[in-house]
Structures are given as C-alpha cells and as structure tokens.
Fold this sequence. Notes:
The complex is a heterodimer.
Chain A: H1 3-6, H2 11-20, H3 27-44, H4 79-83
Helix pairs in contact in A: 2-3
Chain B: H1 3-6, H2 9-17, H3 23-41, E1 44-47, H4 51-63, E2 75-79, H5 106-113, E3 117-122, H6 156-163, E4 169-174, H7 180-186, E5 189-192, E6 212-217, H8 220-230, H9 248-257, E7 265-269, H10 280-295, E8 299-303, H11 311-326, H12 347-358, H13 361-373, H14 380-403, E9 406-410, H15 426-430, H16 437-442, E10 446-453, E11 460-466, H17 472-490, H18 501-513
Parallel strand pairs in B: 2-3, 2-4, 7-8, 7-9
Antiparallel strand pairs in B: 1-3, 4-6, 5-6, 5-10, 9-11, 10-11
Amino acid sequence: MSESSTADITAEQVAHLAHLARIDLTPEELQRLTGELAQIVHAVEKVTEVATSDIPATSHPVALHNVFRPDVVGATLSTEAALAGAPEHDGSRFKVSAILGEEQ
Amino acid sequence: MNELTRMPASEQARLLADREVSARELTAAHLDRIAAVDEQVHAFLHVNERALEVAESIDARRAAGEAVGELAGVPVAIKDVLCTSDMPTTAASRILEGWVPPYDATVVSRLREAGLVPLGKTNMDEFAMGSSTEHSAYGPTRNPWDLERIPGGSGGGSSAAVAAFEAAIALGSDTGGSIRQPAAVTGTVGMKPTYGGVSRYGAIALASSLDQVGPVSRTVLDSAMLHDIIGGHDPRDSTSLTDQWPSFTEAARAGARAEAFKGLRVGVVKQLSGGEGFQAGVTQRFEAALTAMSDAGAEIVEVDAPNFEYAIAAYYLILPAEASSNLAKFDSVRFGLRVTPEGGGTVEDVMSATRAAGFGDEVKRRVILGTYALSAGYYDAYYGSAQKVRTLIQRDFDAAFRQADVLVSPSAPTTAFKLGERVDDPLAMYLNDLTTIPANLAGVPGIALPIGLAPEDGLPVGIQFMAPQRADARLYEVGAALESLLEQAWGHTLISQAPDLSLGEMLAATEGAV
C-alpha cells in the first residue's frame, strides 16, 4: 500500500463510520481497517477519471417505471410467524432494551 | 460412486419419467454421496432431513398418474442466501445462525411446485461477499478437483456440490460473478440471467441493483431446464421483468444439435481477455476455444470496451453502498443474533455489539466502505461517479453488440488458487471478478462453461459468453453448441476427469483398517 493513500483516511474517520454503521470495532480492527480502507479507496477513486458532468448516472440496469399492484390486501405474515425469529418478543411485539440512553 | 449421481439432471429426469428409477432411490443416492464426501468438501451447511419424504411424495404423485414437471423428483441444492421455510437460512453469517425464515423465496417455491427435491443449503461467502467461500462464518468449501484449493465464490458451495456429484443442479446468486467464477474454477456450468429475469424475492439482498439468482449445473442443458423453472415474472419483486421468455431448454437442445456457429459473430472483449493477471494456461485454453468456434464457422472479431477498465472500481463503490443499506436490517431486533454488552445498554449499543459479534471481517469492511461512499461530501465523487461509469459500461456493451452477436472472455483470470493465498489481501481477491463484473453493472446475461484444463496445473478453465439484455436463450444455444463441440473433440465431458473423492476415502479407510 502506498504511503500517500494511507493519509487519505484516518482512524478517527473510520471510528466515526463504524459508529454510523453500528459496528463496534476493537482497536486492532480499527487500525487494520484504516489501512485497508485507504488502500481500497485509493483503488476505487479511479472512477472519477471518466465520470464527467455530461454523463448521466445509471442507478438501475434495466430501466423500469412505476411498478404498481392493485391496492388490495394480500397474504401477509401472521404475528406469530413474524415474531418467530426474534431474539425477544412479548407475544405481540418485538422487545428491545432502552431506546434512549441517559445522555439523551 | 453410484452411477445415478454422475448423470446430468436431464438424464435423471428421463429415468424418472420412464420409471426406471424412483425419486426416493435417486435422492438416497445423492444423500449417500453427501455422507461420503461432504466432510472433505464442505459444500453443505445444512442437509434436508425431509428429502426422502419429499421424494416419496413425488413418487406417489407419479404413481397416481398425476402430471408432474420434467425435473420432478430430481434433487437440487440451494444456496444459503435463499430463504427456505423448512431449513435454516444463514447466508453463511453468524448473525443469522439457526434462523428459519417464515417464507420461501419465489425461486424455492417454484422448485417445490415443479416437484424438485431440495437436498440442502450450500455454503458461500458471508452475505455473498467474496470469491472463495473463505469468508463463510462456518468454514470454507474445498474444490473437488484439489481439496487444498478454493471452489470459487461466493457460490462455492453450489459449484462444489455439483462438481463433487453431490447434486446435479443447484441454485446460485450472482452479484459480480458469484455463479460464473465458481463454475470456472470447478469445471462446471453457471448462468447469470438478465437482471430481472429471475425473481429476487426471498433472496437475502447484497446489492439490489446487481443481484441475480441463477442456475448451477454440470451441463448447459441442465442449467437451461432449471432456468425455465425459476424464471419469469414475479409480482413480489418490483424489478422483475414482465417478459414472456422463450424455452431455454429448447434453446440448449437446438444448440447441441444445430450448427450454431455458422455465421455467428463472436466478439472477444479486448479488456477482459488477457494481459496482467491472466494465467498462461487460461489464455491458452481460451484461444483454443476461439479456434474451435472459428473452425465451426464463427466469425471472431475483437471488440473494444474501454470503460470496462473502470468496472471493478465502480463495482466496489456501488456494491458496498447498497450492501451497507441492505445489511442495516440485521439490527438484533426482528431476527437473528442479539448480543447485549456487559452491563446492558440502549438498543443502539446492543445493535453495535451484535453486529460486531455477528459480522465477519469482509462484511465489516464492505459495510464501512459503503457508509463512507454514501457520506455527505463524498457521495458525488464516489457513488455518483460510479453510477456514471455504469452508464459508460452500458454504452460500451451497446457498441460491442453492434459488432458481435455474443461477447466472450475467460470466466476467471486464473484457475483455482490455494486456500489462504489471497484471503488477507482484499484488493487481490477483488481482481478475481475482473471478467464477470461488467455484466452485472449492465444487467446483461452471462454464462460460464468449462473449456479444458490449464496445462500448468491441470485445473479447469472456463469461458464466459455474454449477450444483450433479454437474449438469455442465445447463451444457452451458443453455450450448448460449444460444449458439444469440445466434448466431441475430447471424447468425454470435462467433469468426468475430476477426481473421485469417495475412492480416496475408501483407500484411506482401508489403510486405516490395516
């Protein structure tokens, strides 16, 4: 990996991204990912060489427009089926720990 | 090895229709084969305990004179990225360990309706992120040609299962080559259909604008037959095409019979067919295949696709961006793993601890990369530019298809590499999909099939054909034509040269006994 590219991404930035992505990283992971991300970002930056302003973006490989279905109730999962894979539930709802922390 | 397991699905189907063999016998033969070799190969994450029961019900329907589908009673392996209501579906991730979905993927429902017998769920790179299956949370799959080597990825479980004769046919999914690259390194066949040709409903999404489910097999005809079953419009997938598709089975049969190469313009994509990173034996076999097609009447032309050079870069922005969004659903609330940090915490703390424990290194890397690419201030430069490259690649395809009826390249730049060789070097791993990624970015179909063994290592080499969007049938016709041309020249199928793993095991057992 080149020295110049590693300067582009800092450990603080990766820590922030990991927080946004809701993934706790160990200090070792943080250090390794900082180096790897810098290397990968350096490689993918190549796209900017040809992406000039006159070229339209493509978000979908086969253009489709306004896919609708009739507004009628179809088959849906029962509450029981929807909850079957949940780590915790009370029989009718998913259960989670506190939504807000003390600082909020 | 039981001869039944060595037959293609089309032959198995014929024996079933003629009542020469029952679905139960056929399924039992495959379960025996799995029991004999899967400890070494590790193609399966889960084997269906009810497979024999399902097979018996097909036999009963047939005995009662019920009209059943052509492949009814034929066992099939299913990549673990596809939801099955009767088997765990983990996408090879710890975060979904033991999860049994409350519904079937549409492709799985269609297999069941057609009377196929689900054998089990096949191994893969976690959430289909990888090219070797080494990123499976449950340990890698091994290549049946050489157990020290990778079977490709992400669908290495499906490719190894068919190459090791554990199943004649399997389902895969292909986001940047996950059906075609494993086919290349295991001497098997795999097809990525036109985007929207096969439903994605119930396929655990990696990158929604690139993912496509498709067939894996040992013969072109078998892939075509499986594609006929799983393909077609599904109102549950809003990106599913409403086209009426021709019979792919007919296309494959026509290709094997007729002189499909007479006057066919075969375009060799300059950017995908040699140079740095291409193994000598791959290039040699590829050129031999071109010569064979040319001798059969094809017109070989070189086509230039200058923007393909940017395909990997665009792919590794679009894929992580879409994946970071798709994988947000693994939040420890509705399904899968929950890890509570010591001393408790808010739902966000639980989520972060769960994702730390439940995701492997490659998943973390790509989710964080995708989060970066979508961040304010970087979005236009990275994600926006990648989407423009996608336009340029589509234009290159359009220009190429004005010069050629089909495009060709090797399906992977190298033969199977050794386990562990590239797992610590993400960029080297990403280069495995050099030849397959452009088709996903443009939504065009691509088929991979074997064209021989590389002289330097005796391992399989594959060729990839690509056609314009919606011209999937052309690939089955041309693929079957090349397959039959090569097999006539060799006097045998390529897969017949794969080592018989059960023999090795028998010898080992004998030695152990002495």
